[in-house]
């Protein structure tokens, strides 16, 4: 399989290729928050563990605007395919800027290329990007009068950065009773209610309160609210 850095190296002479691993992180244009230098070509090759997918977004974006972003740009590749190219200024809501775009990769790999031409003239301050990873968990809709739902991989430890939505829908008149089995084990904190991981019950109708739980004992779970 072609690696991001290698594929990109074929497209142009790459000055810097940075390997980025981990569940989340950030990176920015050279010299950020100061204006970026001329003639830069830099790539970030991000990889999360297999089975995760990546989300990428920009908290700052200020690149020289140009038609089709041909001069200065940030380009995002997913598995070596050209996906999106951005330029311009976020603050001015330029058409080519990412604005509130959140890029979600189908796989655990994503590459970002930054290019500047010979004429920044010290005006544009570049970009800052953040990425997070998560294990995709399809929304599960349960409509049978009884059923089972669990965290991914249960009873094995659940993967980090996972958000699952299980929706139980029964005909009107039914009440829903959730019965938890052992082991029940969700990371908790002795003082702060469920700051890391939690199970949140959101009743669709307002006659019942939202419930937030974590902890490792069914009989004494740490209650969030
Ligand atoms: C990043 O580099 C690693 C090691 O060279 C490679 O295995 C991986 O496929 C690359 N990532 C992308 C997005 O191509
Ligand atoms: C990349 O492009 C090729 C050819 O267009 C396509 O077969 C492949 O599925 C694409 N990969 C992704 C991850 O979009
Ligand atoms: C969970 O999924 C259901 C069904 O798609 C949707 O109506 C609900 O808004 C989702 N809840 C959350 C918290 O995302």
From TrEMBL:
<feature type="disulfide bond">
    <location>
        <begin position="137"/>
        <end position="164"/>
    </location>
</feature>
<keyword id="KW-0391">Immunity</keyword>
<feature type="signal peptide">
    <location>
        <begin position="1"/>
        <end position="22"/>
    </location>
</feature>
<feature type="domain" description="CUB">
    <location>
        <begin position="137"/>
        <end position="225"/>
    </location>
</feature>
<dbReference type="GO" id="GO:0004252">
    <property type="term" value="F:serine-type endopeptidase activity"/>
</dbReference>
<keyword id="KW-0399">Innate immunity</keyword>
<feature type="domain" description="CUB">
    <location>
        <begin position="5"/>
        <end position="134"/>
    </location>
</feature>
<dbReference type="GO" id="GO:0045087">
    <property type="term" value="P:innate immune response"/>
</dbReference>
<keyword id="KW-1015">Disulfide bond</keyword>
<protein>
    <recommendedName>
        <fullName>CUB domain-containing protein</fullName>
    </recommendedName>
</protein>
<dbReference type="InterPro" id="IPR035914">
    <property type="entry name" value="Sperma_CUB_dom_sf"/>
</dbReference>
<dbReference type="InterPro" id="IPR000859">
    <property type="entry name" value="CUB_dom"/>
</dbReference>
<dbReference type="GO" id="GO:0005615">
    <property type="term" value="C:extracellular space"/>
</dbReference>
<keyword id="KW-0732">Signal</keyword>
<dbReference type="Pfam" id="PF00431">
    <property type="entry name" value="CUB"/>
</dbReference>
